[in-house]
Specification:
- The chain has 390 residues and is of the alpha/beta class.
- The protein is built from 14 helices and nine strands.
- Strands 3-2-1-4-7-6-8 form a seven-stranded mixed sheet, with helices on both faces. A two-stranded antiparallel ribbon has the order 5-9.
- Helix 1 packs across helix 12, helix 6 crosses helix 13 and helix 6 packs across helix 14.
- 47% of the residues are buried.
């Protein structure tokens, strides 16, 4: 009886992986990229917004990279210093000296009730942008650790103009150095693509919507009509909440991956704690703070990523050929699915290690729930958020 149960689990696990490879939006191909398009007849004015809280390590390089953009239209960058204690605002001002585009640094007001820090800072930046760049057709919403290449802004604008997109977003390339990040960063990108298949997010006929908060170009018209960011003021997963709002309004969105040098996160991920904090901050919010969904997700992770290796080892040790075959086949398919993303990060040899990454991310998800239960939900830069915020 036990052998039949194992074989049944193995067959189901293999069927799930076949289904995902064939019918789940082709997420694993990692092929949603910003291809060159014809430039617009005239380059519209852009206002860029960067919320920054205690970002002394990266803000200077980020500001310089933005202001050195080869964008041929008018571009004004606004940095909102969100109550930093490390001189972030002064470093941003110094980095803006002698640059071809304009910089404004705003000293942020104390956090308003019902808002997350990032969205509150964005709201203040938008208010300033309406004064400094009233004719801006797009707002560029970025994180304080994301450095652009010279042609990145132009490519985003050209894509939006050519395809009449209200939101264009690229997932910045994260630091993948060191033994932990070498596995966990490509896996993070893989899991995000699985959760929100980019091809489905980019399809106007599907409800799936997603964006990558580090790099988002949004039409000013959509911001005003949808009352952004006020209408999502308490969202911890602000990027996907914004994308859902925009797509639900009938406007078109696009999300893709970044090539090396286009948009790069400067955050150092060599320590496990950096990646752990990034995931634990929002994983439980992604599940709606539901213990039932948490239990289901953890069981699902174990079934999806651990069944194959366990059956392969068990089958080999006990001479159970069907279990060995199901396990080896499922593990091979998940390695195949992970391979394009691993290759994109120039680490193809990590493809068979996806079960280990799944186990670690399961632990991060549980820790996210633990932090929430202990009143530390959404902890970031010295702030935590009450249960009312999600």
């Amino acid at each position: 009886m036990g052998e039949w149960v194992l074989n049944g689990l193995g067959a189901l696990n293999l069927a799930v992986w076949i289904f995902m490879l064939l019918f789940w939006g082709q997420f694993w191909r990692a092929n949603q990229r910003l291809r060159p398009v014809s430039p617009p007849p005239a380059w519209p004015e852009i206002a860029g917004l960067i919320p920054a809280r205690d970002e002394a390590d990266s803000i200077g390089r980020v500001v310089q990279a933005h202001l050195a953009s080869a964008y041929r239209g008018k571009f004004t960058l606004i940095v909102v210093d969100d109550s930093s204690s490390d001189g972030t605002g002064d470093l941003a001002r110094a980095a803006g000296l002698g640059q071809p585009h304009s910089l404004l640094v705003v000293d942020g007001a104390p956090l308003a009730q019902g808002w997350t820090g990032k969205l509150w800072a964005q709201a203040q930046g938008l208010a300033k942008a309406r004064e400094a760049a009233p004719d801006a057709r797009y707002f560029l919403l970025c994180d304080a650790d994301i450095a652009f290449g010279p042609g990145t802004l132009g490519a985003l604008v050209a894509k939006a103009e050519a395809e009449d997109l209200a939101l264009v977003s690229r997932m910045a390339r994260r630091d993948g150095r060191g033994p932990f990040a070498s596995l966990l960063i490509p896996a993070f990108v893989f899991f995000f693509q699985k959760l929100y298949p980019f091809a489905w997010a980019n399809d106007p006929a599907r409800k799936c919507a997603a964006a990558a908060g580090g790099v988002m170009l949004i039409r000013a018209e959509a911001v005003e009509k949808l009352d952004l960011p006020a209408s999502i003021s308490g969202a911890l997963i602000d990027d996907c909440s914004l994308a859902a709002k925009v797509k639900a309004s009938g406007r078109r969105i696009w999300l893709g991956l970044s090539e090396p040098g286009a948009a790069i996160s400067l955050r150092d991920n060599r320590a496990m704690g950096s990646i752990w904090s990034m995931v634990a901050r929002t994983a439980y919010a992604q599940l709606g703070h539901s213990p039932v969904l948490l239990a289901g997700s953890l069981l699902g992770l174990c079934f999806l990523y651990l069944t194959g290796p366990i059956l392969l080892v068990s089958g080999a040790l006990h001479g159970q050929i069907p279990a060995l075959w199901f396990g080896a086949s499922a593990w091979a398919l998940m390695s195949l699915a992970f391979f394009p993303t691993a290759l994109d990060y120039r680490r193809p040899w990590i493809a068979p290690l996806l079960p280990l990454a799944g186990l670690i991310y399961g632990a991060m998800t549980f820790d996210s729930a633990r932090r929430y239960w202990q009143g530390q939900g959404g902890a970031w830069k010295g702030r935590t958020y009450p249960a009312a915020l999600s």
